[in-house]
Amino acid sequence: ADNRIYNFSAGPSMLPVPVLERCASEMLNYKGSGMSVMEMSHRSKVYDAIIKETEAALRRVLSIPQNYRVLFLQGGATTQFAAIPMNLMRTGKADYAITGNFANNAYKEAVKFGDIHVAFSSKEGNFDRVPTQGELDIRPDADYFYICANNTIYGTEYQYDPETPAGVPLVADMSSNILSKPVDVSKYGVIYAGAQKNMGPAGVTVVIVREDLLGHYPLEKYPVMLDWKTMADKESMYNTPPTYGIYVLGLVLEWVEQMGGVKAMQELAAKRSGMLYDYLDGQDFYKAVAEKASRSHMNVTFRTGNDELDAKFAKESAAAGMSNLKGHRSVGGMRASIYNAMPVEGVEHLIDFMKKFAAENA
Ligand code: PMP
């Protein structure tokens, strides 16, 4: 782990060092199989054990109820933006809360498939917050209600599980906060996430779907690859699954369990983000971007208010051993993505740098 830097990337992002070391040590010969997991048939016995254990571990870590299926898919979260309406629409109505770029991209895909109602939008405030329960205008006859649980670009996160009218399943994109805290899966119809923040390398997308929501996909006219039921029936092996990414996810889950599970991840996330927000609130050189009640524990956005200084910050922080602190172009400023694998020392290092930079440039 020598020469590693604190990588504040929004994703793909840091992975736990013990996971990377396991990958390295098992690279050439996985458990006496004589081959790398990358080289293995997905139909082999040894790979079957890997995918089964990964699913079992995910079920343990997130306490996923029996009546939910777990799918390991390809195509990123973005493919699911279309798969969601394709799988869930029955009457053709769905409601979306638009809290950022990815929620909006999901909305734009859904519009191609039905009558989509905007239940909330924070676009006017450049997505600086998520809605309160009372602000949600959800139609009682919607096929589902859609949220993006953590808005990676803007640094906002739901601090509660939104309630929906009876019979309207809640669908959540948890790409950037899955495994960062306990979640009551039973409150959701579908939870899905791209892996490349808290779960492993890019290439695996996890879909957790309540069983009774399967089976309404018009397979006769839509592509088989996006049918969740086909994938569930074939245990994610209708075709070749993203084998190596699933293996790494299994290692990450083992690490999460050793660390104390998602409760421990939540405490660490509260500590890391709390240190940053406390510092931001106690000075006036930098301004935090997100509204207080909506602040993300995974992506902390802030700015100096001066574009040139922001650019200087990005440059000098890189020279000080921290990468990817430049904010997304649609927000500007800075963004520190502090996922599960970011050590507390990385955040201490960042705050020390922020203090020094403020003193030099105030
Ligand atoms: N949703 C969220 C919350 C994201 O942060 C991202 C970007 N990583 C996406 C969706 C899009 O994911 P992907 O690049 O895997 O399609």
From TrEMBL:
Matching Gene3D superfamilies: Aspartate Aminotransferase, domain 1, Type I PLP-dependent aspartate aminotransferase-like (Major domain)
Any single GO BP term: L-serine biosynthetic process
Chief subcellular location: cytoplasm
Quaternary structure and partners: Homodimer.
Protein source organism: Agathobaculum faecis
CDD domains listed in its UniProt record: PSAT_like
Domain of life: Bacteria
Residues in Aminotransferase class V domain copies: 5-350
PTM annotation (N6-(pyridoxal phosphate)lysine): residues: 197
Descriptive protein name: Phosphoserine aminotransferase
Statement: the UniProt record of this protein carries the keyword Cytoplasm: yes
Keyword Transmembrane helix included in the entry's annotation: no
Known function: Catalyzes the reversible conversion of 3-phosphohydroxypyruvate to phosphoserine and of 3-hydroxy-2-oxo-4-phosphonooxybutanoate to phosphohydroxythreonine.
Subcellular location: Cytoplasm
Similarity comment text for this entry: Belongs to the class-V pyridoxal-phosphate-dependent aminotransferase family. SerC subfamily.
GO MF annotation list: O-phospho-L-serine:2-oxoglutarate aminotransferase activity; pyridoxal phosphate binding
A matching Pfam family: Aminotran_5
